[in-house]
């Protein structure tokens, strides 16, 4: 059995290398196997605790016990250990290095809420350590990372939930929207518009001393080595307690080195719902065209020419040619949400409302009784973590699986590549590669920094 597993893993790694994915390092066999099933109340650990890391941890305390927390910022780590300790009978253990979490046999699952450039490395290593995984969206930094994660989920049989919580929460408005489309309430879908908002540019951000509490080298991890930058003005409200402008903390989303701007932030939510509604969760676009857009810095050959300010798109309008002649538009302007337009009408949905004549018509002509459950695949879970734990117990994949997530996220990644290169991209959804454009295809993967390869 072990010999067969090692042979399969060798073939898998050879296949990934042939596909041009990130460098990997073989992990010893005794580290691959983990617990086969969770306890009645599963034991969790969270890796990455600022902002969304605390949000998903706090929501999950109702369903799971947290044995450990990990973060590279000592202040964030300490504060969250205290908060979790107040909510459960025992303080979780605290680690700077996530690998100490993966080495523990008493942990059933990890929740990953690090910056995006860390997701794939931690997720893959967690699965090979025998852990189920809940990872915040966007799941990946590149398209090839998504292919790698899919392969490891299939190989290891681990349960993997992506944190696109609109699939389970928001008072079921999005599930209702999908059910309406599938029930033909707007006829044949012609257009879908995803309003996801824009991002702000930044002033020049100087190199400054690294805060004492931050392990900057480990924060960078697989990303290229670069100095820590920040301005003294502090952020208020959500994400407070950190510089308003920096190349770390909450501002990581504004840098292509670590994320994909609004396209992979809000885009990962609304493009997901749009693809689900039009039946495109297992396919992809044929073309992605940047109609108009603004990049906050100059680019050459797809790369920013300066490194001292934000570099993701601040505004954009992108056309995406989807199957069945559906035109998708991703906008930085207009209301945040999704507008569905068909041959018989149109309606709009976001986290605060669902509105339009087809919605009003539900008063006299309601959806079939089980329409929303049919969309969800059963009774709708109490929240996204509850669905994850239900999947852990049944050993099935949850509502936000890696395959559907990666398919829609490919649209977001391609949109960023198209803007960086300033041209339309033709996409082969079967081969999952850009057609006849070697330069654009070079952006499908990213080589990790030496010493931060994925350990498998």
From TrEMBL:
Xref: Pfam families: GFO_IDH_MocA, GFO_IDH_MocA_C2
EC number: 1.1.1.18
Domain of life: Bacteria
Enzyme type, top EC level: oxidoreductase
Keywords: Oxidoreductase
Residues of the signal peptide: none
GO MF annotation list: inositol 2-dehydrogenase (NAD+) activity; nucleotide binding
Domain Gfo/Idh/MocA-like oxidoreductase N-terminal: 81-163
Coiled coil residues, start to end: none
Gfo/Idh/MocA-like oxidoreductase bacterial type C-terminal domain mapped to chain residues: 205-453
Protein name, as recorded: Inositol 2-dehydrogenase
Lineage: Bacteria, Pseudomonadati, Planctomycetota, Planctomycetia, Pirellulales
């Amino acid at each position: 059995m072990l010999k067969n597993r090692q042979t399969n893993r060798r073939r898998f790694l050879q296949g990934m290398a042939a596909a041009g994915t990130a460098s990997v390092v073989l992990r010893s066999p005794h580290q691959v196997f983990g617990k086969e099933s969770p306890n009645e109340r599963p034991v969790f650990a969270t890796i990455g605790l600022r902002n969304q890391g605390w949000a998903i941890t706090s929501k999950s305390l109702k369903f799971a016990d947290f044995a450990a927390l990990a973060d590279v910022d000592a202040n964030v780590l300490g504060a969250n250990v205290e908060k979790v300790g107040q909510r459960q009978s025992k303080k979780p253990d605290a680690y700077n290095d996530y690998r100490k979490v993966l080495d523990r046999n008493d942990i059933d699952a990890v929740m990953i809420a690090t910056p995006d450039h860390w997701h794939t490395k931690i997720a893959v290593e967690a699965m090979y350590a025998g852990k189920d995984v809940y990872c915040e969206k966007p799941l990946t930094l590149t398209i090839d990372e998504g292919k790698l994660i899919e392969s490891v989920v299939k190989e290891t049989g681990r349960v993997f939930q992506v944190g696109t919580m609109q699939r389970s929460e928001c008072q079921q408005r999005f599930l209702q929207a999908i059910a309406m489309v599938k029930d033909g309430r707007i006829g044949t879908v012609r257009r879908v518009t995803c309003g996801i908002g824009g991002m702000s540019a930044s002033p020049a951000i100087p190199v400054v001393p690294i805060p004492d509490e931050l392990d900057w080298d480990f924060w960078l991890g697989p990303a290229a080595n670069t100095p820590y930058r920040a301005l003294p003005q502090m952020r208020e409200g959500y994400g407070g307690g950190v510089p308003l402008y920096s190349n770390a903390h909450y501002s990581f989303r504004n840098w292509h080195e670590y994320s994909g701007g609004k396209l992979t932030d809000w885009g990962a939510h609304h493009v997901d719902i749009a693809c689900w509604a039009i039946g495109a969760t297992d396919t992809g676009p044929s073309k992605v065209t940047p109609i108009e857009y603004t990049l906050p810095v100059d680019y050459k050959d797809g790369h920013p020419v300066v490194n001292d300010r934000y570099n993701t798109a601040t505004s954009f309008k992108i056309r995406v040619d989807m199957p069945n002649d559906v035109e998708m538009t991703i906008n930085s302007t207009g209301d945040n949400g999704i507008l569905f337009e068909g041959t018989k009408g149109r309606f709009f949905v976001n986290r605060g409302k669902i509105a339009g004549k087809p919605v009003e018509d539900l008063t006299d002509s309601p959806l079939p009784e089980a329409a929303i459950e049919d969309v969800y695949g059963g009774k709708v879970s109490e929240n996204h973590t509850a669905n994850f734990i239900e999947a852990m117990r049944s050993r099935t994949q949850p509502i936000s699986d890696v395959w559907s997530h990666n398919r829609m996220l490919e649209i977001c990644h391609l949109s960023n590549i198209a803007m960086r290169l300033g041209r339309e991209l033709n996409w082969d959804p079967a081969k999952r590669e850009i057609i006849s454009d070697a330069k654009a295809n070079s952006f499908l993967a990213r080589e990790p920094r030496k010493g931060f390869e994925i350990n498998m």
